[in-house]
Amino acid sequence: MPRRRPAEVMFDAIHMATGSVNHLPGLPAGMRAAELPDAGASDPFLDDFGKPVRESACECERSTGMVLGPIMKLINGPTVANAIADPASELNQLVATEKDDSKLIQEVFLRFLARNPTEQEIKLSTEALKGSAAEPVVVLSVGAFTGGGPKLRCSPSSSGGRICDGFLRSFDKTALDVRLEIPSGAGPFPLVALIHGYAGSKTSSEDIASRLLGDGYAILRYSTRGFGKSWGQVNLADRIEMAGAGAGQSFPASRSGGRR
To answer: Based on the number of CB atoms within 10 Å of its own CB, is 191 exposed (0-12), middle (13-18) or buried (19 or more)?
Structure first.
């Protein structure tokens, strides 16, 4: 019967696949979770996935169930996000140095799926890489929302304006999945930031966004932490999300550059 991997094995596997160095609190960098000497050294990821507290010798202390919280952490939690984003990781070094897309795709498959890709998978992956590189990029002035200088990928909208999608970094460097809709005509435009409800995303509130766009407002929508494709931990309407929304309002929605 298939069983979920123990918390320590999953933690170590994430860092082994990405080739990143983990940093468990109070322990030497790179020490594996499977080597933890006692219950006093831990990590939220390990706790959420059932690492036992070692109050008894019974294996029944260990939890192997699956609930929504740990699943969300596998999708976009800080352990996975930090391992992928680590600039010194073997994965990022491979992306930077390997010029052959087929070899890069093969290495990624071996690292994460422990098998070679099929010819169809190589074809689809190569098309995805080339399609991403060929998309037009518009440089937008974004102010405090990201600390300056990101690029959003934009395309013409049916109303004659532009729709721009991409990831911007909030005040705490969390990458948020953002959609900026710019009306037709010359800017700058007044900006309205829309925040979705629980379990929504940047595509929520489409009817409200359409009406405001028709009235000449630029619309900034983003998936809050842990929802859509945004990274970070799920929060309700607390100070973290309010700070992110406040930073987003500095977005002047004016172009500082052209197509590149």
So the answer is: buried
pTM: 0.52
137-259 is classed CATH 3.40.50.1820: yes
- Rounded to whole angstroms, the Cα distance separating 102 from 85 reads 22
Both tokens assigned to 258 = 């052209």
Strand, helix or coil for residue 170: coil
Q: Which residues of 20-29 are buried (b: 16+ CB within 10 A; e: fewer)?
A: bebebeebee
Spell out where 13-61 has E strands.
Answer: none
pLDDT of residue 116: 94
Cis peptide upstream of residue 37 (ω within 30 degrees of 0): no
Sequence spans of domains, the chain? 7-88, 98-134, 137-259
